[in-house]
Amino acid sequence: MKKIFGLLFCSTLILTGCSSDYLNTDLESTMNESQIETSPTALQGLINGVYTSLHTYGLSSSSHEAFGHKAVLSAMDMMSNDMVQTRGSWFGDYYNYTGRIQSSSKTTMIWNTYYQQIKAVNKVITSIDKNGITPENKAIYGQALALRGYFHFMLARVFGPTYVGHVSDDCIPLYTEVTLVGKPRSTVDIVYKQIVADLDKALINLDGYKRQNKEKVDLSIAQAFYAEIALEMGNYTKAAEMANAARQPYVQPTESQWLDGFYDLQGSPDAMWGGIISEATTSFVASFFAHFDNTDPSGYAGGLGFIKAIDKRLYDAIPDTDFRRKAYQASNGAAPYKSLPKYANIKFRDQSIGQGGDYIYMRASEMYYIEAEALGRLGNEDQAKAVLSEISTKRNPSYTVIVSGTALIDEILLQKRIELWGEGCAWTDMKRLNIALERNYIGSNHVLLSGKLNIPAGDLRFTYQIPQAEILANPSVKQNP
């Protein structure tokens, strides 16, 4: 079984156009194309290969910043108001906004992370469309559809404009079939209609599916994808519905569980989806924890001092009675991490004892804030306050919410920023909500001049340029300014 899975994984890497080392594996010597298309085991193997690729170093770029989906989430947060880079180097091009230009390898990293995997899931979807949905391949079909919709959504967030007010603008190339022909950019409206269609079908086909572990996409993950997408589209009724449904199978962590380091996918009760890292798959310094665990002396952050910290304003907004304040250094040299400065994050700590900490891509906690924001924007303030209080009192027993109107939405967004710091939501929310970058303020702890930026809301720098290699290879694609 391990040998078969290895071959199937290599087939996914072939489909995604990875390094030539993988091209020496001849899948057809074991299974021909027809057998792959009709074998549920083979098709699930292709999907499993996608899951593995999402946390594999070097598939999208040779940089040590290129460790898959978690790297993209981290890069996006580095562009927000809430993350502080204390020393220039790794992730610095995201932090200072130079990584969004077409000649930068940073654009290529994000582009390849998702388009490579879209090719693989399209192989699965096309095969099942051709041969028919069966009880054996139904959930495989659902996983592939959910992933395709989400991957296009991630690309649209980065390389396209926001949905609201821009439905006729250029977005991204849309791929729904296996092809070597480059496509032009579709409009925002067309891209999101396809994303929604994929998620609608995914929900149907994932109903009743019981996954083996949290690395796989099940119904709750498809609902969580849908909640994020609906929020972006301003479809607040659907966003509230999907967010509420997605969070139901999960329980909230205790204080000790929340402060444990965010490295254990299966053990974290509100962790929904992520990548399982083992001794065989860990990529050491080319990994999330090497860059964001300030307590690890063997990593870039802890060992070489490329420390990631929380913005002073956000830290100051966390009450003393809220245990999330403990996820950051309270003063310079505070015990037990005496080498770390004030505001340094100790939220992310790999305590896997050398095995390599898991990557958590999504937590059920996010769904509370999506639901609360959506309800608030629909005018259902009492229910929005109830949802916000339900999660906030678990972090701070003294928490109360008494504001209304715009102030209520602001409070929901503040609590979301506190809860999900460093988890990939801050910058995408800034772009969605047309919020400016403001790091150059009196008392700012953004110490690097290159990153001490103020960028007005709606600035072209909030949208990435399409990689130069794609422009050269696909003349149908029009570049962003």
TrEMBL record:
Domain named SusD-like N-terminal: residues: 22-218
Entry's localization field: Cell outer membrane
Keyword line: Cell outer membrane, Membrane, Signal
Pfam families found in the cross-reference section: SusD-like_3, SusD_RagB
RagB/SusD domain ranges (all copies): 350-481
GO CC aspect terms: cell outer membrane
Annotated coiled-coil segments of the chain: none
Family: Belongs to the SusD family.
Descriptive protein name: SusD family protein
